Structure prediction request, 145 residues.
Amino acid sequence: TQSTWARCGFISTSEPRDVSPVFTQFLDCVFQLLRLYPWAFQFNETFLLLIHDHLYSCQFGNFLGDCERDRQRIEVTTRTYSLWGYIQSLDLTQFTNPLYDSEKASTEPLISPGQLSSQSLSFWSGLYNRFELGVHPRESVNERL
Prediction:
């Protein structure tokens, strides 16, 4: 994932104000698919949130540079730590999706034409509202539980 995004120039470090939200949008799309097809993903929402948190944490160099050439020029692999190495050092069971079904995931198509619609998308409150403590507008207490 990191090399694809850097190669395409989606993540910029040249100007702090030029930070692109495209990777956050990509993670949101993955979350939507995870929510709609939980049997197709080995990881859970916690994994996506961890990646997003460290995207801008400045602790890891995985997503630095506008392209692969920039990453080589600033020697990202030798001068920074890898997020993936850090994740491997953690208890990976916290990122495991209990609904994952390897048989079903390898035999059934994930998305068929006409299966997705804008009505099937939901607001990712786990990312965008996770620091809010109260009940959100239009959110019932039952939904909160």
The two ends are 34 Å apart (CA to CA).
